[in-house]
């Protein structure tokens, strides 16, 4: 059962408490996310305290997502039970009013709800005693930490002591892995945002035989040497990595006129032969020849998104997408730049679909308008007869979609 917290910002008559308790004893999720921060701050302390009277009004909670005010309130203890398995402190990144340290709240959570398996910490305040509190969550397998500007020196070491952790997100200004070796024996999914050197050092202490899903973003300007070191650390997971996302938040200090630098960085990822899903946000130019190499790199790829493209040199023609049809038998989603200047033979009609290639979605990442929607739709249909969804960054892709729908309708009538 799920309780909408709108009822808690209103006055509750004494005669209504017993009836309320009947329902709230069946509540499994307490979530203030749907309320605006002004609404959650209007919950009177007396109401929060009354909710926490013994016996607990929420004795069977499993998911606990308090707002900012409750996260830093003395009433927090009244909501905590040993049944909670998922929690956030607070659920939104807005820090509690007049609270500079959520360490005591985290300690309460660790004491009263030690069986938590998933924990989110997002407030831009201090969490004093973080290490000792975190050690109480022996069953923690998912940890999300973001926006923290103050944390203790042994912060990373305490995180790495969580041997059952399988899912970790760290979005921090900086973090140090000095003196740490071979940690996270169970980590399968990692989302890491930080400076290039921090990303590189962190990746080097992770067991290379477990990690399957990796999301990297750097938040500082980086030179080619630093970025190359990060890529070298990534390819160490070649035997296990299935999902990879690489992007940047701030500028990259690379020679933009040297295409070879960008291509060599990207090409190093060809060593990750087990990839099923790749999202790549670093700009580079591509040619038809390089498209053939990309299509041959990952035989098991299902989702391929090359989201940033430098428009110069030879742009891959639409026909070059045939390489993916020939060499990527499992591909279902493709984001890729192609030249939209396609000649059209007015006598050409869509033949009956023969290919069984499963591609369903194509997104053109070239920032250009479609000049001939019929020609583009026909080319794409001939290469990927199962294609259902097309779009791009320029104009008139809605016309391409409508024509593609017509082709499917005609083929359906023929069969």
UniProtKB/TrEMBL annotation:
Matching InterPro entries: LRR_dom_sf
Q: What is the lineage of its organism?
A: Eukaryota, Fungi, Dikarya, Basidiomycota, Agaricomycotina
* Protein name per the record: F-box domain-containing protein
Checking Gene3D superfamilies in the record gives: Ribonuclease Inhibitor
Q: Which domain of life is it from?
A: Eukaryota
